Amino acid sequence: RHVIQMIANASLDAIEEVMRKESVMYLKSVDKFNEWTVSAFVTPGNMKFVLLHESRNDDGIKAFFNDVWELYVKTMLNPFHTAHTPIRSTVFDARVRASAKKYL
């Protein structure tokens, strides 16, 4: 688990570099580490979603990121959620996992 977090964190520089060149939200493949490919999605508010995956399924990954973004926006609009804090909702987690099963 810690290796995956390290890879995702190390990819943030690559994401920033691609963001400077392209003005799209879905950045596709921004980095590669051994068998894992790193894909990213950047929201208009500059929130970065990072996904490590082994297979190439660009349409599914893009649909997954769009679902997660929609869930994220709904959570941020919830008046009971405190901004700038981790999302610790079991419902959010379950819906992200369901979206991953559906698209990835």
Plain-language structure description:
- The mean pLDDT is 92.
- This protein has helices at residues 2-10, 12-21, 58-77, 90-103, and strands at residues 26-33, 36-42, 48-53.
- α3 packs antiparallel against α4 (90-103).
- It contains four helices and three strands.
- A three-stranded antiparallel sheet has the order 1-2-3.
- By secondary structure, the protein is of the alpha+beta class.
- The chain is globular.
- It starts with a helix and ends with a helix.
For the structure shown, list the relevant keywords:
3-stranded antiparallel sheet, single chain, 4 helices, 3 strands, 20% strand, 104 residues, alpha+beta
Summary?
The protein contains 4 helices and 3 strands; from the N terminus they run ααβββαα. By secondary structure, the chain is of the alpha+beta class.
- Kindly report how far apart the N and C termini lie: 19 Å
Largest sheet: 3 strands, antiparallel
- The structure class reads alpha+beta
Poorly predicted runs: none
Order of neighbouring strands in the sheet with most strands? 1-2-3
Secondary-structure map with pairings?
Elements: H1 2-10, H2 12-21, E1 26-33, E2 36-42, E3 48-53, H3 58-77, H4 90-103
